[in-house]
Amino acid sequence: MSVKVDPKLMKDLEHFGLKDVNKCFQCGNCTAICPLSTPENSFPRRFMRYLQLGLTDKILKSPEPWLCYYCGDCSTQCPREAEPGEAMMVLRRYLTSRYDWTGFSRKFYTSERFEIVAVAIVGILVGLALWLFRGSNPNMEHAALNSVWPAPAIEIADLVMAAILTFFLLSNTYRCAKFIMGDLLYRIPPAIYIKKAWELVVHFATQKRFGECTDKMQWFVHLLIMTGYSTVFLLVAVFLAGGLHVIGLYWDQLAFQRDVEYAIWHPIRLLGYYATAALLYGTTYAIIGRLKKSKAPYKNSHGTDWMFLILLELTTLTGIFIHFARIVDLPMTTYVLYVVHLMVAVPMLVLEVPFAKWAHLAFRPVVVFLTQVKEEYFKEQKMLA
Amino acid sequence: MEKKTAVYVCSGCGIGASLNIDPLMSISKEDYSVPVCKSHECLCSREGAAMIKEDISNEGVNTLVIAACSPRVMYDVFNFENCIVDRVNLREQVAWCQKPGEEDTQMMAEDYLRMALAKVEAMELPVPFKPEQEISRDILVVGGGLAGMTAAMEASKAGYGAILVEKEPELGGFQKKVGQIATFPYKDLKDNRIISDLVKAVTSNPKIKVYTGAAVEKTVGGPGIFEISIKQNGSLAEHRCGAIVMAAGWQPYDPGKLDKKLGFGLSPDVITNAMFEEMSFGGNVTRPSDGKPVARVAFLQCAGSRDPKHLPYCSTVCCTTSLKQAVRIKGQNPDSEVYVVYKEMRTPGQAEDLYRKAQESGVLFIRCQDPEVKAEGGRPAVEAADELSGETILLGNLDLVVLATGMVPATAFGPDIGKELLKAADEEKKEEDLDVPLDIIRRSKILNLDYRQGPEMPALRYDFPDSHFICFPYETRRTGIYAAGCVHRPMGIGSTLEDAAGATMKAIQCIELTSRGAAVHPRAGDMSYPEFAMQRCTQCKRCTVECPFGAINEDEKANPLPQPTRCRRCGVCMGACPERIISFKNYSVAMIGSMVKAINVPEEDEEKPRILVLACENDAYAALDMAGIHRMTHNPWVRVIPLRCLGSMNLVWIADSLSKGIDGVLLLGCQHGDDYQCHFIKGSELASIRLSKVSETLNRLALESDRVRFETVSIIDYPKLPGLLDEFAEKLVEIGPNPFKGW
Ligand code: SF4
Ligand code: SF4
Ligand code: SF4
Ligand code: SF4
To answer: Which of A122, B168, B394, B726 to pair with A281, CA 20 to 30 A apart?
Structure first.
């Protein structure tokens, strides 16, 4: 089967941050250094060629861009400064936009204005909602969040939001799986999927592939952000009111949003501290890195990269401020900060998780998992033959 | 000329330390009664040369034997007008390559001196050849394209007249049909003004006589005295000219012969690069089928080129041409999709910049060895395995597919006379005529030479009339005729201008040398030429068949009619002639014969075998010098005689040597065959063919054929020479001494 060529792809991908791929003369230095490349799979060089030729079909079906964590070694080694690492990043952005069936992602990536306006609108809506649905009798003597926005109510909003996000994210992830697996998706027996499910968990939790790259710092920072983020997610989505309050399944002793402070050793408090510290360190490191262009993966920043980091940093900072405002018991300050906090955090979640950078938290482990499933399947087929 | 001989022995450069000079003096004085014998510690110094000059003017000596360094050096110092000079190579080939002070070393030097004395005895001062007719200084240029017009202009600028013959009704050649050109500095395309400017300059130049719609009907004679008949509109014009620049141009490879896979004929929108030029001349590129604008174009490189079934060579310009055409389409419509499918992109020199320009303007390059053109829904498409991604890609819905076909020289058309000869010979069953490989000469009707060897230029390879690309870039195998432009080898505009200027310069050199009676390259300046003692000729045709340069015509009775101005003085005819009736004033069968006779062959019990080395003076002799320069000691039994070309080797020398008791004969010549290095093209090959017949002679003498050996060496092989000589010497020891010793 011959593949269609689309010389216009390069031009299109410029909106996604593509640099001049034509600089690449296919020397393969990037492949030589890249830990992901194998004798059969000349990565990322082959993708530079796909880009040059605009082999869209090939790109859509390829898992490889997701296997790359952007250590940036390839870009450092490239004698032509063709930025293969950034090209893989661009492919991930592009793929995210192609997996997304709403077309929202593409807009988000290709127009900075759209991106900013979208974030602003969601932020304002959140602010308005919080203003409209505030408690009728706020405690103005002590900082007691539950008196203004009771945790169970917020939890319901949380769940609604989570449901919508999950719907979009999962449908997009399904499309991703379909592209990558094609007919195989259903042809492979479920037993193999189950057998390999563990990998999904391991990769999600440890990102051990990233650990194979030479620059361990990148892996560490990424791990910090990821675990910090997951912890916070757990705290606000699952433990906000101590469990699923709506169905009465909760334990007050685990509630994240509560007006009485936990003792310093309390696991919820400790988790909160870990998450905050991890996010603060990781995000600040990345922001400084990008500002200084300190290493290859930080050299090129797309609008969405900045948006992502800024929102995350703001969310973290406002979270910290809320915490201190509560400890020193400044009710008004706490409430205002809470509104700001959510005005930043919610757009970040709503827009970034299904449609932009955050989506990779689903795509990447799923793709790693699927490639292993595929490998296993072929191995078994070969043994049968 | 009454000879008065003088011997000068130099003792400098280590010669004196290695040899005893006095015995050399006494050999000259006593054995050869040389009246003037002198030695000097530095013969090439001003004093040394002055001493010789003094003897020439005061003593009246005119035959000089200079025993010093190699004849390959100091030739300007030891150049004495009107004197016969021979050089004895005591330095490189005795003192520097033999053990100093040894008896064997001394014997070698003495032999070389004897050989030189015998040689000068047989030598005469050459008398330059003067043809009866007056030498013409006009240059005939055949072909009025870029190369031809440039050649005519260059000739006129240098003060020589030019006669320009063009077969088309107008001057201009292929380039006339080219609208835009890509040439130095290859940054962008240029409008083609070269041709119109040149046509103006040529037609208004009083030194250039232009014939258009004309052809050369006949070329008779040789350099300096070519008689040319030019036919134009049914009338004949006659001209004498001194040399010829052949700029007959090229034809695009016939697309009808291409592999079906390339799709020529599949659709009117599959065209060749030459058709592209014609169709886009002065206008935009459109779809040939319906005149619509083009937005998707694919170029397929090497269409029929670098393919043993079609043109085995690279035409060197079709890559740049496709780049030019691709850039042109991009310029016409920047949004168009342009693909170049190539095997290797060959952009010689700075043409690489045009490649970059094409790349920057968005042309996509696809490396694929074997693309296929298909018709998909009425539009051509190209399927190609992209090597760099490993994917088979489809370039569908194309408006235009351009096949980059190569160049075929104008000399490639017409039947090959070799085949005709073979047929004729087959009928006559004259076997011996056949062992000399026949040249490929096609009846391409460009020069219509009145040469016994065929009417056109012999091809070297792929029908290009070349000689030896590396050593003699402008030379063909017919003296005084120089190929220029794409008939010479495929080339672009820049190279053509250079090539035409170069060929014109060679033509001028030829006229000048010929008017002095001297040879052209590679024996430029040689005043000798072969003379035939016709009374003894048996009309065997060996000389006419073997002369690599077609310098000998024939009359109806098969008598050779030598054309000395065409001769390159290689001596191949002299080696070929079984009657030994061809000789030069300073180079003859008898002369080498007496040198062989002058070698002192010790008795068997002395255990000093002797090996005669007949070495080509262009490479093998130089390699021996190189070995000496590197102070590599070699076998003391060898005696080396340099030959103009191994092709001048006459079998009688081998018979003479062996019957004299010399134990073995080693022939050192240049590589022959496809990658030949012989300065005279076929000399060493002919020598080896002749040698294959020597076993007969040896059998007659009851000798082992192992005693004669042929080796090919080039100058860079010098480190192997001592080993090669030793190995041969050992073999001879094994065979045992020559039974003819002492006879
Ligand atoms: S991206 Fe750079 S290193 Fe990789 S193949 Fe291209 S030029 Fe070479
Ligand atoms: S110049 Fe290019 S297209 Fe022409 S024969 Fe050579 S490699 Fe092939
Ligand atoms: S064989 Fe050589 S020397 Fe003899 S006529 Fe031909 S070119 Fe001259
Ligand atoms: S080779 Fe000698 S004998 Fe034969 S034709 Fe020529 S000149 Fe005559």
So the answer is: A122
